[in-house]
Amino acid sequence: MDLPKAGRDFTIFRCFLAIMMTLIRLHYRRVLVGTLFFGLAGFLQFNAVDDGATLAIDLLITSLFMLIIGLLGFIGVSLFPSFRVVMEIGALVFFAMAVLQRSSFSRVTDGLPDWILSCSVFFFFALLHHIIYGQWWQKSGLGFAVRLNSKFKTRQRPEEVWARLVPNPNDLGAYYTKTLRAFDPKPGEPGHFVQKIGLGGSAVLELQIEVKECSPFRRFHYDFHADTSDRNRTFNRGTCDIQLTDLGADGTLVEISEVNEKLAVGEALLMWFDNLGAQVSASARAVLDGSRDWTLIGKMRRDVQALS
Prior knowledge:
Blueprint: H1 2-48, H2 55-79, H3 86-101, H4 106-109, H5 114-133, H6 136-140, E1 143-154, H7 158-165, E2 180-185, E3 192-200, E4 203-215, E5 219-225, E6 237-246, E7 252-264, H8 265-274, H9 276-289, H10 296-307
Antiparallel strand pairs: 1-7, 2-3, 3-4, 4-5, 5-6, 6-7
Helix pairs in contact: 1-2, 1-3, 3-5
């Protein structure tokens, strides 16, 4: 009588473990950076207190503090992905304030009311958010080339994977993100398409696509760019390559490589923190295998569908 229950408990545990490993792989960059700066700030605070504790004790307390912050970070980022940047920016704010409190600047703030100090935290957070992720990076023209690599295995056959990962003008709903609104051939320009990706409601992202290679069930390679102003023409352009390898009874090996020739600094940094290559891998595999999509891409897809 206990075996079926034990089996169910083991299955639940395996599912929970798989989910946690996925979340760790997707969010470890942001949580590690945030935990590091929270830990440095905590050490400055603990070490500043004259309680007779040795350096070893302060380091031990800091380590425990970082462990708690790391666990809370993974839970918070996973449950509230829309507020994920709080992890790294909040850590920077906390660290900066700890440094200021250890400097001569602390004498200036000693006489200020608590409400002013509290408001300054939110102001500093907003300022850092604007500096790191603000649209001014796009206007400045500064950017980085970004390469996103995704590699995963799926139980599906190559022809089934092809139908979900390669846009089909005659079956937009088959595309794995469910956000494809158009993939229209351009008259008189073979291999050229206009791709429209839904952003919610009537908003769409429009890209110009030039297919360089289309070998069914094996490789799909294309260039893309967005029609923008002359100032931003160097942004939002690059290449994407999808390669499928037939593994026989084991399914299909999928390799996706996307190169963005230039992304604004803030956007490139956000992609790095989001670990977007791993997000694409986990999202595509979840959709193909029919499991729950825990990625940021999955959340975006559900948000767009809710607004459509």
